[in-house]
């Protein structure tokens, strides 16, 4: 079977199942992506998040509004650009990012359960190699 098709199909299945599990936990996969990005960067402007997550401005704007309303994010003035603001996770946003990570880890563990530990490690090495090549 074609490698490209397999990768796309597996990715689609994982994304669907992760989104369903996250929705049961009160957020969407896109909202979790924002929380996850801020969890690692600590703070960012909306434009930086949009670029990092490959989202357009209207999409990231709507996600941010919903996350602020849920009290997972706070906005503060951007000292470098008065037209924008800096986003930070609240304590509940940090907790929700961690919950999402745990859900993601459990889902991936379940999906990879038919592979041995050695096969999972090999898969990780190969995917990391492909991913690294894409960034260069």
From TrEMBL:
Q: Which residues form the HTH marR-type domain?
A: 1-132
Q: Which domain of life is it from?
A: Bacteria
Which SUPFAM superfamilies does the record match to this protein?
A: Winged helix' DNA-binding domain (SSF46785)
List the protein's name.
MarR family transcriptional regulator
Upper lineage is: Bacteria, Bacillati, Bacillota, Bacilli, Lactobacillales
